[in-house]
Write a structure and sequence with these properties.
Helix content is 38%, strand content 18%. With 378 residues, the protein is of the alpha/beta class. Strand 8, helix 9 and strand 9 form a beta-alpha-beta unit. The protein binds magnesium ion.
């Protein structure tokens, strides 16, 4: 094992679903690793800069220890959730890329090997306009996707009687059911279809909609109520045969513990490059597996963060499907160097390339940097 010490850490911000933060970790022997985390914004860049003094001089091989060292040093300012965890997640993914390259092994191999050779994706096709939504779904199916997600909540819905309360007016209810019915008719019965409610409804509204959507055989109904009250989520789940999914804004094992132990959902959806990183993501998946809860990560990353999530999805038994949120953002495919498309027929194949297995295309990434910011020092 080659002795390595962390010598520098840099970040860049790249346009995508908002801005992703890419983290690059340099070592004294010239080996580097790159990770991606998202939804922390500029705050994450500052946090990572502050954390760099805790990492420089450390061995990059002790990934879990470094994760916990950074987390515990922030217990009084965010070491449980939010931007601090997202920042540590970006560092953790870069460390896995670096260590994989140091051992010339793909990350999934270091995590315990794989259950499957390729990772099924679902395409986010959400648009509040029905025709545009159906058009998105047809585009995704034409690309080979066999799983889709649409949105039915709409705060601007003309049928909504009060934009602040969480209840559902009769016409809003009818509009939602008609919307899902029209999409199901358009895509057919063979395609997996998930429906997102973005945690915007109360318990009775959620129960009504979940039962009304049962004939459409959804893959899941996502966050019909806010996930903060797990007791309410559990009651919604118990009221319907429609599978319930939640967790895109929860962090770490602690954030998922009661959701899993109370069996308040059928499916969990941690956002691995936001809420936990690869090692913790695997632990969350394993916790869910002992309750026969499926694992379907939320994901809005570019190719690097998406592929990082794939390494976790490959190595757990209860993986269902991974999100892909860039149907209408073609520059996703340009951000990395590849000899063939990363996504083929709605799947991402794992390769035997070391680390995460993808390298940034610097020229393409530079075109999408946050205005006024610079690329990594090469
Ligand atoms: Mg969602």
């Amino acid at each position: 094992m080659e002795a390595l010490r962390i010598s520098n850490i840099q970040t860049i911000e790249v346009e995508g679903h908002g801005y992703s933060t890419y983290v690059r970790i340099y070592t004294d022997r010239g080996k580097i690793g790159t990770g991606e985390c998202i939804h922390g914004g500029a705050g994450v860049t500052d946090i990572i800069r502050d954390m760099s003094s805790q990492l420089i001089g450390e061995s990059p091989y002790n990934i879990d220890m470094l994760f916990e060292k950074l987390r515990r040093s922030h217990l009084f300012n965010g070491g449980q959730s939010g931007n601090v965890i997202t920042a540590i997640t970006g560092i953790e993914i870069a460390l896995w890329d670096l260590v994989g390259k140091a051992f010339s092994l793909p990350v999934y191999q270091l995590l315990g090997g794989k259950f499957r050779d390729k990772i099924r994706l679902y395409a986010d096709c959400g648009d509040r306009d029905l025709e545009k939504c159906i058009s998105n779904c047809r585009d995704a199916i034409a690309l080979g996707f066999n799983a889709l997600k649409i949105d039915v909540d709409d705060n601007r819905n003309i049928h909504k009687l009060d934009k602040w309360n969480w209840s559902l007016s009769p016409n809003e209810y009818n509009a939602m059911v008609d919307f899902v019915s029209a999409v199901r008719d358009a895509v057919g019965k063979q395609v997996d279809l998930a429906v997102d409610m973005h945690a915007r409804y109360d318990a009775s509204a959620a129960r009504k909609i979940a039962v009304a959507l049962e004939p459409f055989q959804l893959m899941w109904l996502e966050e019909p109520v806010p996930p903060e009250n797990i007791d309410v989520m559990r009651e919604v789940k118990r009221s319907t045969h429609t599978p319930i999914c939640a967790g895109e804004n929860l962090y770490l094992r602690h954030g998922f513990r009661r959701l899993i132990e109370e069996q308040a959902v059928d499916i969990i959806m941690p956002d691995i490059p936001k809420c936990c990183g690869l090692s913790e993501g695997r632990k969350i998946a394993n916790m869910a597996d002992i309750y026969q809860i499926a694992f379907a990560p939320h994901n809005v990353c570019g190719p690097l963060g998406t592929m990082a999530s794939c390494h976790v999805c490959a190595g757990i038994p209860n993986f269902l499907v991974l999100e892909w949120h860039w149907l209408k953002r073609p520059h996703w495919h340009d951000l990395v160097h590849t000899d063939k498309p990363v996504i083929e027929n709605g799947y991402i194949a794992l390769t035997d390339k070391p680390g995460i297995g993808l390298e940034l295309n610097a020229e393409a990434v530079k075109k999408h940097l946050k205005p006024g910011t610079d690329y990594f020092d090469e």
